[in-house]
Amino acid sequence: MTTNRWRMGFHLMPPTGWVNDPNGLCYFNGLYHVFHQYSPDWPNGSERGWGHATSPDLVHWTHHGMVIHQDIPEDANGAYSGSAYIVPGGGAGGSDLLRLYYTGNVKEPGAHDYIYSGRQANEILIETTDGFNLGEKQVLLRNADYPDFCSCHVRDPKVWSQDGSLHMLLGARDMDDEGLALIMESQDGLSWTTASTVRPTSHFGFMWECPDRIALDGFEYLSFCPQGMAELPWANDLRDQSGYIPLPAAVKLIGCEHVNPALFRRWDFGFDFYAPQTFTDPQGRTILIGWMGLPEPPFDSAPDNLDWIHCLTVPRVLTRCEDGVVAMAPAPELEQLRGEQASFAHVDSAPAQTRTATLPAHRVDIVVDGISGPFDLTLDGAARIAFADGELTLSFDDGVQGIGRGRQTRSVNVNALENLRVLVDNSALEIFANNGREVFSTRWFPTADQLDIAIQGTAEEARVWPMGDGMEGTY
Ligand code: FRU
């Protein structure tokens, strides 16, 4: 069931198996590289390492299979998440050097809880000068190198250069079950010492995964995935959340010991989003890619015995809004996949308008501009995006073909809905509202051959394009 009506055409995914976090994002030697957590034999086997995909344009992808395996004692139970750092002129003959940092996960034999004992978290480096031929693994950090207050959960290195040093951000859980981030420092990228910790001003989850430092227009942000959040009123009963905290003006993460959890804003208000990572491309854009999945999902993402599960989001360009909110927009390159614009049939009925369109496949790009007042857009009569009374809601009529597979309702408060962009890519949906201030990512499993779109409400313009397939090279 590799080729299937539900497979994506512009959301990155491997040919078979399981994908989770994006890793090692970078633009190197003329190609975009996206590595990712990968279990190629899923649902059989438990190997966890890095898959690799490249693209010249963020649209057309080639998948190169599993490239980092769990094959040394220091990563015996998984080559976990990590990041890329490019050393300009660092390779032989003055070429650039790509460094991949990741966490080697090891579970020691014996009776352990694997939280306070029995687990190794090793930070490991792999170098490459061409992005494909990977060098020997070098183990740089072991449990004994982290501060004593850390439990065995320390992982997901993100490395960057700032103020004349290299910095490595790590997610951690301390011995009192407080989530935090560690910052290590280095001059050569090989030998690292602990520099500082970033803690919340009050308890905010027992563990922070996949931390990232983002700089937009001179303002810095800490992005991370706190675990242990289910009790919070906005958490939809989910343990795992993903969001960011803006730092005050002129404050750098490397000099910041405390962040205010009251300022935490979720990246995404949909059902399927976690573990995003960002990188800066040669045009200076900050691009985010997330995992369209969750560690402990209460809903189904592989119905009908599929031999693949999950995908990544499209690359999203980040911009800082005046109030500090980070907006996300699909990389404009995706518009290359647009076919000939299709038209909506208009049914004008005061005060609201109704528009409908039927497209031959579930792969489209919908743009609605100049929205005012209550509004809704429905796909196949079953997936509904609605704005009314200060609330923007995504909901599934699960009675229709079990289309949401357990996904029901998600919402966020907004003052108004001004515009909407909806990317439909078979079983992946990404919804960008208000120029990407509010985003909903979700999987759904439509079974109709054609896609029915119905729009109700006042809008100046609604456009829709069929989209092509940028993933042809992968399967
Ligand atoms: C987040 C995560 C990371 C870890 C990886 C293992 O989804 O748990 O913290 O490195 O996945 O696949």
TrEMBL record:
One Pfam entry name: Glyco_hydro_32N
Enzyme class: hydrolase
Keyword tags: Glycosidase, Hydrolase
GO terms of molecular function: beta-fructofuranosidase activity
Entry-linked PROSITE patterns: GLYCOSYL_HYDROL_F32 (PS00609)
Residue ranges of domain Glycosyl hydrolase family 32 N-terminal in the record: 11-322
Domain Glycosyl hydrolase family 32 C-terminal: start-end pairs: 365-456
Entry keyword annotation includes ATP-binding: no
InterPro entries given in the database record: ConA-like_dom_sf, GH32_Enzymes, Glyco_hydro_32, Glyco_hydro_32_AS, Glyco_hydro_32_C, Glyco_hydro_32_N, Glyco_hydro_beta-prop_sf
Keyword presence, Hydrolase: yes
A GO BP annotation: carbohydrate metabolic process
Known EC number: 3.2.1.26
Classification via PANTHER family: BETA-FRUCTOSIDASE (PTHR43101)
Family of this protein: Belongs to the glycosyl hydrolase 32 family.
Name of the protein this chain belongs to: beta-fructofuranosidase
Organism of origin: Collinsella tanakaei
